[in-house]
Amino acid sequence: MTAYISTRDLVKEYVLGRERVRAVDGITLDIERGSFVGIVGRSGSGKSTLLNLLGGLDHPSGGQIVVDGTVVNSARDDELARYRREKVGFVFQFFNLVPSLTARANVELPMIFGRIPRAERSKRAREILERVGLGHRLDHRPSELSGGEQQRVAIARALSMDPALVLADEPTGNLDSRTASDVMDLLRRLNQDHRHTVLLITHEREIARAYCTRLVELSDGKIIHDGPPASTPTPTPPPVATPAASVPAASPAPESGPSTENPR
Amino acid sequence: MTARDGFRFALSNLLQQKVRTLLTTMGVVIGVGAVVLMVSGGIGLQRQVLKQFESVEAMSSIMVLPIKVDLTNWSFEPKQLPTPKSLNDRVIADLRRLEGVTAVYPNVHFHLPLSAGKRKIRVDVAGLPLEGVTTGLREAVVAGGLWAQEGAHVLLTTQAAKALDLGAPEAAIGKEVRFVLRSEREDDETGAPGTPADPGEKNGSAEPSAPPAVTPKPPEDCPEVFTVVGVYDPEKYKGFGGGQVFLPLAVSLKVRRTAGQDRGGFRGLKKGEYGELVVHVASPELVKGVSEEIRSRGMGTITADDLISQLNILFLVIEGFLGCLGGVGLLVAFVGIVNTMLMSILERTREIGIMKAVGARNRDVRRIFLIEATTIGLVGGALGIFGGWFVGVGLNLAVRLWLGTKGGPKDVSVFQVSWLLGAAAMLFSVLVSALAGVYPAWRAARLDPVKALRRD
To answer: Core-most of A8, A250, B26, B271, by most CB within 10 Å?
Structure first.
């Protein structure tokens, strides 16, 4: 059986000044439908670049990506837009909500580009927001919402076109530990109850171990480890010293880390 | 994205930046307003001029010239000029026999000073035979009437009567006015300025300026003093010669000759020849046929239709020029829109990234920006047209007030905004602003979503 997502020798190169940087360097990966895969690694290891490639936000320099039978790597811009709209839902570290739009309007945004009729759009947005526990915040703007609420709006937006694939890039990176676990619980529910395939980027190993069914570790654009979470070696030193490492609760994000994630 | 959603989206974006949108829109308002005002001025002028030809009198008159002229092509070589046809009394009698012709008479037209008491004004004078008197002219007479036979009679305009201080039109009837025939007349060939051996130059005290030996033409039996028989209102009479002081034809010929102004029109007129003839026909529809008939006899004709079509071309050029002048404002507005849109892209880079991440196609992004630019043009255009019209109305009032103090006509509208002008200005405004949106929209559409999302 073929995997839901499969990449072959995936390469993404950037030109930085005079240097060529391989952010993703020959990644071959198969991900089954309905899995919850964590991608871990240090800053600059190529996690975000990989996610952007899988999500059709970026064009690879080489290699192949096939998602659910769609060849993503050679798609034209319009086809990629359609792919992003119908098959992928993005969740970002900084939420990336449109500040001028209400929670409901933000959730409606993908459906606007998907030409879903207005009445249905509005109904669906309300349903999804209720599902993520924000039924009472429909007409609030992002600035009137807490960080956790904003991220839940962002997740609701990612789900609005009912995509098979949810790509979450450090979704808890900007949240305190309590809200972080709320958000992670929500993602797990989506994965378990609604069979969304979830790819989660995090550099918080505790979170990855607690929620993911599989961990892929990257370093310098290459896969250095791939397997069930328990088998993943704990790097030394760990990014954050957590006293109770066995408790599946998120530790607060380090202040500086993730924003310098991408090579520029 | 549907067009409707695009429009809603664009509108809410524009309202996000109210002040900037307002300022950019003001640019369009001023630009479109200037175009509308300028062109409406041209149109108003055009209508004002063409009004002179609107009357039945003007439309059923033909000007006859000794040579064929083609009003659509002025650039003929002088040497290619055909031998002029002699316009004399025999030709007049001949033309009178044409079907539909009601009057034929020479066009006598000159300027002279006219005085009454201490008042003196310059007037346009025209000769008019009784057969050339139209009902339109009769109806425009506000006091007195026309002369019954040739003689030293004059039909004044209301303005001339007023300027000569003759009192109310009724009071002017029977008063005498005097044409200044000699003292101010232009020199003719016999009295050219550089006359040699002028003795007056030596003893400069005696008669320094007026040369006494300017052998004046014999005074003949030319009258100088005329009796006012009637006063007419030129605003009510738009035929040939409207606005002129009328004399009986035969007398006018004498006055013109005495005043030394009989060299108008074509050079080399022999005695008994006229420069131009005026032909009246029974109704405007007959003009074309009679005109062709006259041309077939080797003469040239000018009809109101000819003049109107020529004037229309002239005014089109003038309006185009004025429009371009106003268009400079619109050009500035164009740059303003481009600038605003580019700034907006900078501010909304992240938002564009978000839209792309959630599935907006390049053309969706492009559309949003194009609609935004076009909306500015739409609103600015509408307000600009209104503004141009409004200023025009104000200026019209000012012009009328000013003309009123000068005793001029009171129904003048220099600035006239037609529906067509409004529609054209709207279309132009929308086109210009859409065009201004093209480059920003293109830039926004091709933003790299990954980079755009990374932007703070």
So the answer is: A250
- Contact between residue B455 and residue B353 where contact means Cβ atoms under 8 Å apart: yes
Of A81, A97, A118, the CB nearest to B356: A81
Nearest CA in chain A to B17: A100
**Contact yes or no for B361 and A113 at CB 8 A:** yes
Cβ contact A81–B357 (<8 Å)? no
Q: Is the pLDDT of residue A257 over 80?
A: no
Helix (H, G, I), strand (E, B) or coil at B157: strand
Residues 387-426, chain B: which have Cβ within 8 Å of A? Answer: none
pTM for this predicted structure: 0.70
**Residue ranges covered by each domain of chain B:** 3-53+311-454, 109-184+216-241
Strand partners, B280: B61, B103
CATH class, A5-259 region: alpha beta
Q: Which helix (H) or strand (E) holds B109?
A: strand B109-116
Mean pLDDT of B30-54: 87
pLDDT by residue (tens digit) across B71-121? 555 555 555 556 777 888 888 999 999 888 999 999 888 888 898 888 888
Q: Work out the average pLDDT over B317-343.
A: 91
Q: What is the pLDDT of residues A97-153, one digit of tens each?
A: 999 899 999 999 999 999 999 999 999 999 999 988 999 999 999 999 999 999 999
Other CB atoms within 10 A of residue A36 CB = 22
**Over chain B, what is the mean pLDDT?**
83
d(CA B264, CA B268): 10
Mutate to test the interface with B, among A77, A162, A201 (most CBs of B within 10 A): A77
* Closest alpha carbon to B179 in B219, B226, B146: B226
What is the number of CB-based contacts under 8 A between chain A and chain B? 69
Residues B300-315: pLDDT tens digits?
Answer: 888 888 888 888 899 9
